[in-house]
Amino acid sequence: MMAGSPLRLCAVWWVFWPSVICPLTAGGGVRAATTPQVTDVLPSGVPLPPPTPVEVTPFDDPNTELLGQAWGARSWLARHGIRINMQDVEELWGLASGGLRPGPTYDGMTAVTLMFDTERGVGWHGGLLNISALQIRGRSLTGERLGALNSVSGYDAGRSTRLFELWYGQGFFANRLDVRVGSIDLDTEFLVSQNASFFLNASFGWPLSTSSNLYSGGPSWPFSALGARVKWTPVDSLVLMGAVTDDNPTRGPFYSDIVPTERDPTGTVFSTSGGTLFVGEAQVSGDVARWIAGKDARSLPGTWKVGGLYDTGRFPDQRYDNHGGLLASADSTGQPLYHHADWMMYVVADQMIWRAAKGSNKTINIFVRATVNDGSRNRFASEIQGGVTFDGLVHGRGDDTIGIAWGTGFYGSRAIGNAHDAMRLGTSLAGDLKPEQHIEATYQAAVTPYLIIQPDFQYFWHVGGTSSDPETGRTIGNGTVLGVNMTTTF
């Protein structure tokens, strides 16, 4: 989350056609389908403006990007309805203590996005074609050194060079109705907390409740899935969204020793196997201060969301095998009993709670996100996260943000029962399941309009969610992680 100053917005938002991205505040007439922010190709640690009752159009200024007008190429492409953007992320992480094996790692990513406005390009009103690709590199500190359930970074993913999204969007009724069809990533629009997205830990983007309970983590970064999304804005303060996609973006089994990026290393599987995932969300935005004290009060905007998902696929029981026996038993088949369908409900709240003066960019904002789902076929039955961000409070650094956040996920009843079975039967050294908790403190510095530096500190309790290392039986120490993220917009 970021303050809404022009410099800040231009540093992290890419908006090519202002009248496209903000049809609700623009004049009448049909607009192209909603232009996504350039940060939609990033998983988390994404600086976003604070929630506002009405979407604000950032300045369209290519000079805030490293390559500027790119020797006139951007202007020429713009006349033909084409916009190309590139972002590069470099991260260094180090496990200072605890976990499995202290030491450093590196990860990085380069994302390229191409958009084609059909009205400017071929005269077709309201259309937008979006194509994006990712090059992910480096090693996993979470998997190789820490052993945590919650990845320290959204970029802590399997190495690959891959297609990310490929969809066509069409706007109707001055873009109050927006439809996308193609290969879609859901976590850029659903389950999103604007304030939580500021943090680097991956769980503040796409939470543990979905990344662990769905096939391959569901249609979330760096994966997309075939489907459609509909977004309707009947009034400025209300947004209704729904999506239907394939539930298994990499076409793999629920449990596999092969990481998802190896099953689909190019992002071109376009799976139609498995079940169907339905997602719905309602968003309400408003200004609490002005509701209470009138229009002359300091604006304190907020956005509140409620939503849910339903998956028609087959999901493994967390305690019983396919013959009705205990999975923890030495006599078990090792194949879990599979149930039909799965569901999850969630709430998200982003709220500004303080502002230095009317119109000031010095603000304090909070977020809360909670999920709940079935405890028989999901390893994690509920999750809660919360945090606070401070914008523009550092003297002389009006575009910088400080944040601190916490999160944890709670095991379902059958996952807990399975752990007790394993201890009683002596088939596991892991011991009791304990909810892994993590806290993150981070500082984001806008060095230039196109360069963001973000040092980061994270601390983990009950690493891996168990009492002991399941392979050795030794206690896993609490993890202390230090890192830095550098994001450049070209």
From TrEMBL:
Superkingdom of this protein's organism: Bacteria
A matching Pfam family: OprB
InterPro entries from the UniProt entry: Carb-sel_porin_OprB, OprB_Porin, OprB_sf
Protein family: Belongs to the OprB family.
Protein name: Porin
Source organism (scientific name): Gluconacetobacter sacchari DSM 12717
